[in-house]
Amino acid sequence: MTLGQRIQAERKRLGLSQEGLGEALGVTRQAISKWEADGAVPEVDKLVALSRLFYLPVGVLLGVEEAAAAEPPRPVPRWKRRLWPLLSAALGAVCVVLVLRVNTLQSGQADRLLAAALADGRMWQVEERGVAALGEDGTFCWRLRAVPEVEAPGLGLSVTAEGGGERFTARADRDGLAYEAELRLPLGEEYHFTLRTRTPSGAEYRQELGEWTVTAEALAPLELTARKGKGGTLSGGIWTWDGSIWAACVPPEGSLVTVERAVLRQYRNGAPEWEQSLPVEHGRLEADVSDFQRQTRVEAGDEVLLLVEAVDSLGRTCTRQVEGAAFSDGPSGLEWAAFP
Fold it and tell me: Which pLDDT value is given to residue 79?
């Protein structure tokens, strides 16, 4: 099976049209059609994107990672013999790089492929890195998730942090196409982080990630503020929240903590009753819910609270009350008072 046939088979397996696949990769339908007809070869970055979309290593997509029975040579159609010189001139250096990488895989020389990827600074695409949790013993958990730009069997990855006169190392575990690692480090030190790639032959390559200084102040809980434009109303046993609601939780300068998600939630007698998600963008909560209205049937003895809750990147929840009401029987029927 050729590369083009694999692309077509995987596209159909996902139920995508040529237009849909092209939109996902940022190319035209005509480009997809040429790839599938083996009239053109995807660039290296597009091959990587295809491998992620199809959940296949690049080597498998190219048909060179797994040993397979060799197919007898087949004559090249006359139209392809006329087309390839034109394509070679158009693709230029990209085709040369791709052919070299494919030939390297076919010859089993994975080290050369990895070295080339490291040389152009594209060995690892870091999807996530930073503080993931805060310990009670003056430590923090630093987490990394990275995807190799070039897949190779037997690839090993570890992350090292050096700081405070000590070195901490953790081996990355594979999760699908990605590699994940966690380090437990003391607070208050400046750490230099390095990725170390080990090939099957034992060769090791380094990729610098830069420096981080993590202090308790940089991981302090965020401050959440919330307010409501108008109070609630009670009529016929129906309590109505009415008016606009504004909520904000913005990390201060120097903070390593971000807002992950936020909700507007109602509690009745201590139990959550309903919730509405609030928009969080770039790790910040700045929500303005205009013309908010919500009705709840209540009875004597009920206590109803409307809260904004924000969860930060360390899993901590910050809560701010917007409004609260307690209901009781009065001389003229059901009455309410601000609560708490």
Answer: 38
Specify whether the CB–CB gap between 30 and 19 falls below 8 A.
Answer: no
Task: Give the SS3 label for residue 174.
Answer: strand
Residue 104 has pLDDT above 90, yes or no: no
Question: Which of 188, 215, 242 corresponds to the end of one domain?
Answer: 215
Which residues have C-beta within 8 Å of that of residue 29, sequence separation ≥ 6?
A: 18, 19, 22
What is the mean pLDDT of the segment spanning 270-293? 92
Domain boundary residue, one of 215, 232, 250: 215
Which domain covers residue 11, as residue numbers?
3-62
pLDDT tens for each residue of 38-94: 888 888 778 888 888 888 887 787 776 653 344 444 554 543 444 444 444 444 444
Q: How far lies 329's CA from each of 235, 300, 309, 332, in Å?
A: 14, 6, 31, 8
Total of domains in the chain: 3
Cβ-based neighbours of 61, under 8 Å, separated by 6 or more: 3, 6, 7, 10, 47, 50, 51, 54
CB-based burial label for 329 (10 Å; 0-12, 13-18, 19+): exposed
Where is 187: in which H helix or E strand? none
Predicted pLDDT at 96: 40
Which ranges of the chain does DSSP label H, i.e. alpha helix?
A: 3-13, 18-25, 29-36, 44-54, 58-62, 78-91, 93-106, 110-119
CATH of the domain at 9: 1.10.260.40
Q: Which tens digits make up the pLDDT trace of 303-340?
A: 999 999 999 999 999 999 999 999 999 998 999 999 87
Q: Tell me the pTM.
A: 0.58
- CATH number of residue 307's parent domain: 2.60.40
CA distances from 82 to 5, 43, 76, 79, 237 (A): 21, 22, 10, 5, 83
122 and 169 assigned to the same domain? yes
